[in-house]
Amino acid sequence: MNIQSSSESQVITVDVVKANDLLRNGGYRYLDVRTVEEFEKGHVDFDDALNIPYMFNTPQGRVKNPNFMEQVLPVCTKDDHLIVGCQSGVRSVYATTDLLDTGFKHVYNMGGGYLAWVENGLHVVAPKVGV
Questions:
Q1: Is residue 8 part of a domain?
Q2: Distance CA 69, CA 102 (A)
Q3: For residue 124, what is the enclosing H or E element?
């Protein structure tokens, strides 16, 4: 049996339909951990959607944002209810783990990420074309 001693926190993943319900009706906020460039190409449609990248693209590949928690803490409290999403659901698992390990209590990972959100026909904010 593989037990992770570094994390007592168990990441709970919800599908995009459940995430949409929690965001619309459950008092949850959306934390998009994709890059700013990805976010600007389109994102989940919520007025207070936050975009705090968990990783950055560099010439050497993706690297973890060393200031992720320092950027989250001024805009979210540890009692906030958060849905964490990325492009496909991988970065958001890592981000959710970090949030839980830091003491956040009500955080869900959005399985499938933005791609699954779009595939399910849920509302998105798309970039303005020709503006």
A1: no
A2: 8
A3: strand 124-125
Write the CB contacts of 111 (distance below 8 Å, at least 6 apart in sequence): 13, 14, 15, 16, 89
Calculate the alpha carbon distances from 106 to 28, 79, 96 in Å.
9, 7, 10
CATH code of residue 34: 3.40.250.10
- Please give the mean pLDDT across all residues of the chain: 90
Stretch 25-44: mean pLDDT, rounded? 95
Q: Among candidates 121, 122, 111, which has minimal Cα distance to 45?
A: 122
Active-site positions read 86
Residue 99 in tokens: 């949030």
Residue 57 in any domain: the answer is yes
Residue 32, Cα to own-chain centre: how many angstroms?
4
Quote the Cα angle for 118-124-128, to 5°. Answer: 120
Q: pTM of the prediction?
A: 0.89
Number of domains in the chain: 1
Report the length, in residues, of the chain. Answer: 131
